[in-house]
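Comment thread on ticket #2218

A.B. wrote:
> Attaching the input chain for the structure job we discussed in standup.
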Amino acid sequence: MPSNVIALRGATVRAARGPVFGPLDAASDSPITVVVGARGTGRTSLLLSVAGRMRLSEGSASVLGVDTSTRAGLAAARRRTGVVGFAELDALEPSVTVGATLRERLAWAMPWWRRTPHVTADLSSELLAEAFGEYEQPTPNTLVRDLDAASEMLLRISLALIEGPELLCIDDFDALLLGPAERALVAERLCALAARGTRVLVATSDPGDADLLATPAIIEL
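C.D. wrote:
> Ran it. Output below, let me know if you need it in another format.
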């Protein structure tokens, strides 16, 4: 394991109208890191930078020991991270079944020469098991629009886990999980993933969410 999961030094993203976030100095070697900041503070851009999906304007970022200041570093961070809760990247189609959603992600993750398998009940259970744990899984025939908020979030996490990321970057935790019981359930599953070795980075506007996530490192914006 790298000594720091995330290390930011003067990290800044600028847009035409000025800074989106930064300059920011922060580091975490915790299994779970929580970014706390209201909407408009650059939370999403920070997570995208950590996940190798956005380049910093200034400063530097090390993610899992990889320097993301170069194209090769960004690509390496992108391969080693999964993203959840980003409307432009992993939003689900409400009218599609869970099985079809899983099969689409499998097709994306598998080499082009391999045939994407049909998602049977057994395969669906296997793909959902790590994220759902003891929580009841949806069937492959369940429509996404029929999922409750916790199940939808756990499905999105399951999709990200298909590609075997070392770090999960989860945005809008409090906005996507409005109910405290749903938030607590998903937090418990994230703690379980972190205990098994998948690092977790969560962005929220509610500082209280850190209490659900096993005393994580906290980055404030």
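A.B. wrote:
> Thanks. Noting for the ticket: The first helix runs from residue 43 to 50.
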